[in-house]
From TrEMBL:
Protein's recorded name: Inhibitor of MCP methylation CheC-like protein
Keyword tRNA-binding tagged: no
Key words of the record: Chemotaxis
One matching Pfam family: CheX
Domain Chemotaxis phosphatase CheX-like: 38-120
Record-level GO BP terms: chemotaxis
Protein's UniProt keywords contain Zinc: no
């Protein structure tokens, strides 16, 4: 099982390196997907199969895109937010992939934008879901494992 500590450490490393943003655990277990306009997802296939989802607010995606792309926040468009979330999901997913039995491959990232949606990765169950905050914004990393 991918532990909460593993997910937090990986997320902290990615966010500190790429967007200079500290990350903290958050006890809020609300359904962020219903209120989060953006979710990045990568799937892992091989000896271990599953998916990694990164959900956050549009405000945080804008802040992250601004830092990663070196743009003023007012210049950030939806495509910039989507590209940034795809890259964040790819980096976090790649690091999680290194912790699971291999060999395995990482899919291209997908990004869902909008409110009040439900994402279901068929054939998986949630192995761990970690709520965090970064720059005062909610963030959740969800690891789904393929059913055996």
């Amino acid at each position: 099982m991918i532990s909460t500590e593993d997910i937090l450490t990986i997320t902290e490393n990615v966010f500190t390196t790429m967007i200079d943003s500290p990350v903290e655990l958050d006890n809020d277990e609300s359904d962020l997907a219903a209120h989060a306009p953006i979710t990045g997802c990568v799937q892992i296939a091989g000896e271990w199969s599953g998916a990694v989802l990164v959900q956050t607010t549009g405000d945080f995606a804008t802040q992250a895109a601004s830092k990663m792309l070196m743009l003023d926040q007012a210049e950030v468009c939806i495509e910039d937010r989507q590209d940034t979330m795809a890259e964040i999901a790819n980096m976090i997913g790649g690091n999680i992939k290194s912790l699971v039995p291999g060999p395995s491959t990482l899919s291209l990232p997908t990004v869902t934008t909008g409110e009040d949606f439900d994402i279901r990765i068929f054939g998986t169950t949630v192995e761990n879901s970690v709520a965090m905050t970064a720059n005062g914004q909610q963030l959740k990393v969800i690891v789904c494992r393929g059913c055996e």
